[in-house]
Design a protein that fits this description.
By secondary structure, the protein is mainly alpha-helical. The protein contains 19 helices and no strands.
């Protein structure tokens, strides 16, 4: 009996002749998977040779079909190898049972993975894969037709398989629920919702900015913004508040000082004629009683009434100067510094007063605090006329004596201080006396 080449059911690998058409290239030594080929049915021809049992001559087209099924370029990531082997056995077994192994055109038959993917995709694509083993199947061709048009059919099968793969439902869209991959895709409705949400957020931020802008405008124009927790009566009262400075209606000469926490009430503010009488009363009481706590409280109340009514006249300068002198006499540098700051702004408006006297006080104050930066600013702003004034000249000489370490001259100037400058010099004369004593001790140390 002639020996025929066959593929055993287990273990062996058989080389396959290389293809010679223009299709996709295959490996030079492809790996055949004989385990995937089903065992043929027992022979019914009554053969008595036991060695022929289980052996079958598989057509080259079937071998090529098996090789193409397991080629790397045809492997689908969502189809496992086990599923492919089961499907491949099923296809070949059906062909053997239907006795269509030699008539089926295996070159155009869809690969097992394509069949599995189509079945998973649903029934909409079931018509794409007709059974190749039925007598009326359109895929059934004769051997001659297969050999004559092998290359052309190969190309058409590639197109058919690619069309099937393109028409199949992707694995990430099989269920109604969106997977993690699909959630990363931006959809038009999702973009519309995001844009609507961003517009809502931007509109809210614009409203906040507009409200803040209105509050700043109210603050710059002197209007008090309405508060939602205030009653309607209080809101009506606040809306009727005047925009400009108020005019006081209080006729009391003496009034305690209270820090303002709201808009001033004209009924508690004294007008300018009453304030002039109050100042004369306070000067008399200071000369008679010397009660600084009472006088300071009354002067602060007087200054507050002047400020809320925007009164800036010679009377304002006079009131601040008197309060500053009294504060110097009692050593209250805090109140003196407040008055000095306001007087500097009032002197710039040429409202009268004694600008050179308080300029000298300012120089002496900077000598006490050792503030060299502000001292340099004051010296830079001095005019030749200011330097010729006796009060300013005395303060400049004092500064020069301390800068040169001429303590003899310094103490002579201390005894000749004009006006109330001596109260300021009393605050740092002890410091300078110790410094002079230290210098004298170093100079007269005995030599050994």
């Amino acid at each position: 009996m002639a020996h025929t080449q066959s593929i055993p059911s287990t273990g062996a690998f058989t080389a396959v002749t290389a293809r010679r058409n223009l299709g996709k290239s295959l490996p030079t030594e492809p790996t055949l998977y004989p385990s995937t080929l089903p065992s043929p049915a027992p022979s019914t021809t009554g053969s008595t040779n036991g060695t022929d049992r289980g052996k079958r001559d598989w057509p080259p087209s079937v071998r090529s079909y098996v090789q193409r099924s397991f080629a790397e370029e045809n492997i689908l990531p969502n189809i496992s190898r086990q599923e492919m082997e089961i499907k491949l056995k099923q296809v070949i077994s059906q062909s053997v049972e239907a006795d269509t192994l030699m008539t089926v055109n295996w070159d155009i038959l869809p690969l097992p993975q394509a069949m599995i993917q189509t079945e998973k995709g649903g029934g909409n694509h079931a018509h794409i894969l007709p059974s190749p083993f039925m007598p009326n199947s359109n895929l059934t061709l004769t051997v001659h037709e297969t050999n004559d048009a092998k290359s052309k059919k190969r190309k058409s099968s590639d197109l058919e398989i690619s069309d099937e793969l393109s028409n199949q439902t992707p694995p990430w869209k099989r269920n109604d629920s969106r997977s993690a991959f699909e959630s990363r895709i931006s959809y038009p409705e999702k973009r519309a919702r995001n844009e609507a949400g961003s517009d809502h957020v931007s509109s809210k931020s614009n409203q906040v900015l507009d409200g803040r802008k209105k509050r700043f405008e109210n603050a710059s124009t002197g209007l008090t913004p309405l508060r939602p927790w205030r009653s309607s009566a209080s809101q009506a009262t606040s809306s009727e508040e005047p925009k400009g400075p108020i005019v006081g209606r209080c006729q009391d000469l003496e009034k305690k000082y209270f820090r303002l926490t709201s808009a001033p009430n004209p009924d508690t503010v004294r007008p300018l004629p009453v304030l002039e009488k109050t100042l004369e009363l306070l000067k008399k009481k200071w000369k008679q009683e010397k009660n600084y706590l009472y006088i300071c409280d009354q002067f602060k109340s007087l200054r507050q009434d002047l400020t809320v009514q925007h009164i800036k006249t010679g009377f304002t300068v006079h009131a601040y100067e008197i309060h500053a002198r009294i504060a110097l006499e009692k050593g209250d540098l805090s109140e003196y510094n407040q008055c000095q700051t306001q007087l500097r702004a009032l002197y710039a408006q040429n409202l009268g007063g004694h600008p050179t006297e308080f300029l000298a006080y300012r120089i002496l104050y900077f000598l006490h605090t050792s503030n060299r930066t502000d001292m340099n600013d004051v010296l830079a702003d001095l005019t030749p006329t200011d330097k010729q004034d006796p009060d300013v000249k005395h303060a400049l000489d004092t500064r020069s004596a301390l800068a040169l370490g001429n303590y003899h001259r310094f103490f002579k100037l201390y005894h000749d201080t004009p006006h109330m400058g001596a109260y300021l010099m009393d605050m740092f004369v002890a410091r300078e006396r110790l410094s002079a004593l230290s210098v004298i001790c170093k100079v007269y140390v005995p030599f050994v």
